TrEMBL record:
Residues 165-281 form the 3-hydroxyisobutyrate dehydrogenase-like NAD-binding domain. One of its GO terms (molecular function) is NAD binding. Residues 1-16 form the signal peptide. It comes from Mycolicibacterium peregrinum. This is NAD(P)-dependent oxidoreductase.
Length: 295
């Protein structure tokens, strides 16, 4: 397939590289040219603008937030204006349900396809093509772009015809991950202050009742106090928790834990944690109990 790829951060760079490995023709665009250079060395075609990345069958966006997706999609120089009729925009960004609805309507009006396909997995999973893809859109359109999902992930979950469903599920999943990080951090602060080795404690947890990737991954980061460099930066954690709260407000679903997490992330950012991995929010409890601040 001829694929344009916009957004070459920690996740996007790895995803675009795997599309190249799978034999697709990939044109890449990113505001920082160094990320483009690394991929052109592997066979990607550099794009000088968003428009230049929109001449193929599909354009994939993997960007940090609603504002970034809006900036590359709308306006005279955006995806909507330059993607051919019948081509497809695949949005793998974690964005609001409201933006998913807006993108769905805008692309339909332009005669283009739209599939929401956010992913679960950290950068190391992206590099290994082991992401879990959560997709939603018109069945024929999802089927058309399924080779992309096969190239970047280990399994694709199709949630129906409404793209917003995929975004809502992704938001809910990130809320759950943040909840695990916070509760793990509190539990480790409790046993750690009593002198229990955190790594030994984690081994006990993941060998018994909590043998799940999220506990192994984030428990390991917390036990090792390994928060830099960030695989998923703390400001993005706050953004995703706020997306969950916004979705809850729209659907009239109280999310009291999400409200707590919003305040925990605000505390982390207010105390200098902007550059840390979002798992550092779990280290606040140990700091508040007399330990050192997350760094």
């Amino acid at each position: 397939m001829k694929i344009g790829f916009i957004g070459l951060g920690n996740m996007g760079s790895a995803m675009a590289a795997n599309l190249l490995t799978a034999g697709h023709e990939v044109t890449v665009y990113n505001r920082s040219p160094d990320k483009v250079t690394a991929l052109t060395a592997r066979g990607a075609v550099p794009a000088a603008s968003v428009a230049d990345a929109c001449h193929g069958d599909v354009v994939v966006t993997m960007l940090s937030n609603d504002a970034a997706v809006e900036a590359v999609t709308f306006g005279d120089s955006g995806i909507l204006a330059h993607l051919p009729a019948g081509a497809v925009h695949v949005s793998s960004s974690t964005v609001s349900v409201a933006l998913a609805d807006r993108l769905t309507a805008a692309h339909a009006g332009a005669g283009q396809g739209f599939v929401a396909a956010p992913v679960f997995g950290r950068p190391e999973a992206a590099a290994a093509a082991k992401l879990f893809v959560v997709a939603a859109g018109a069945p024929a359109t999802v089927e058309t772009v399924s080779p992309i999902f096969d190239a970047i992930g280990q399994r694709t979950f199709v949630l129906g015809e409404e793209p917003r469903a995929a975004n809502l599920v992704k938001i809910s999943g990130n809320f759950l991950i943040a909840s695990v990080i916070e509760s793990l951090g509190e539990a480790m602060a409790l046993v750690g202050k009593a002198g229990v080795d955190k790594q030994q404690y984690l081994e006990l947890l993941t060998s018994t009742l909590f043998d799940a990737p999220v506990y192994r991954t984030y428990g390991g980061l917390l036990a090792r106090e390994e928060f830099s460099p960030a695989g998923f930066a703390a400001p993005l954690g706050l953004k995703d928790v706020k997306l969950a709260l916004s979705a809850g407000e729209e659907l009239q679903v109280p999310l009291p834990v999400a409200s707590l997490l919003r305040d925990r992330f605000l505390t982390l950012l207010a105390t200098g944690g902007d550059e840390l991995d979002w798992s550092a929010v779990g280290a606040l409890s140990a700091w508040e109990a007399g330990g050192k601040p997350p760094a």
